[in-house]
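S1.2 Input.
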Amino acid sequence: QVPLASDPNTLDPAVFGGQRMTYYGRWTYKYEKAADLGADACIIVHETEYAGYPFKVVQGFGGERFDLVTPDKNMGLAKIHSWMSVDAAKALLKMAGQDYDALKAKARTREFKPVPLGMTASFGLKQHMRTVDSQNVIGKLTGSDPVLKNEYVAFTAHWDHFGIGDPDKTGDKIYNGAQDNATGTAGIIAIARAMKTMAPAPKRSILFIAVTAEEQGLLGSQYYAQFPLYPLDKTLADINVDDNLPMWGRTKDVIVVGLGASDLDDY
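S1.3 Output.
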């Protein structure tokens, strides 16, 4: 068999996780990198296979979007953040005399260089900016060991969902997020209640953090990472519970997102 690293049709598993979706493949990172490089606009080509959700989900992002407030009021970002369906991208590249699949194959190699398309684009938009406040909610169960209580294990879940749906729809328009992520929020509350009654009690302190604005790009989690209430170097693990705890009763199966990405697998 040909080693994966030398197979031109397979991404090297030693680089950015190979076929796995890592942070470097997320749209948020693409926008960050575009800003770092001084791009005026960043257009992401959406492919359902890699994103894990259809393009209609992206189209639902057409409303108001949020970000954390920065000292420059986010003026350092690219002026345009946008998506394009893969079919539209193929048509666009064909207009430029290029082939999407051929360029994509070249992009899987270290020899790939950006290809000028010889095309121009114009954008027009009206922008209204406002600042809103939201909250992370945190609870702490102090550890029973006089020394280890200064170390922390966190359980997190996001409490937000998308908000209000189609204004023309009759009846309930609120996206309550019963599965994503009321189940996760209820889950960490249940864990907190159970741990409160444990004997012996946990030696380390346990944090229960319900974070906000996950659906806007993990903003509550990002905020806590930048402004933690408890030292990050003393926070040993974060077990995040998100999206569809089983509704059908007891189960022995667990899905771990991020398997292989930390020492928690061994523990």
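S1.4 Remarks. The longest strand covers residues 152-158.
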